[in-house]
Amino acid sequence: xxxxxxxxWALLGAALMESTQLLMATGVAxxxxxxxxxxxxxxxxxxxxxxxxxxxxxxVALLAAVHHVQxxxxxxxxxxxxxxxxxxxxxxxxxxxxxxxxxxxxxxxRPGEGGTAADAxxxxxxxxx
Length: 129
Known about the structure:
mainly alpha
């Protein structure tokens, strides 16, 4: 399957997912959410929709270019899943890096103890971090 065709299938999958979310939002808000006082106007909703659709198409284009997307069902499913996956990854926040046994924490190194090429030239060890 070509990249362009895969992107169209991804756009269809993402649009179906967004339409179901809009349907749920209109049920909760008893109408379109942007028509109530204190809510953002249509512009921010349209921009968010454009970013989510663009994210889906971009991810599928990337995977289709390296021949990982072979069927329309996979392309549309990936298009529907991509925005949700990125939102969940963004909510996780920064991932802490565990300490390496035998090495002092960052910021506590003395010159010649390792960490830079200049320290290695002076006889210290090079830190792989």
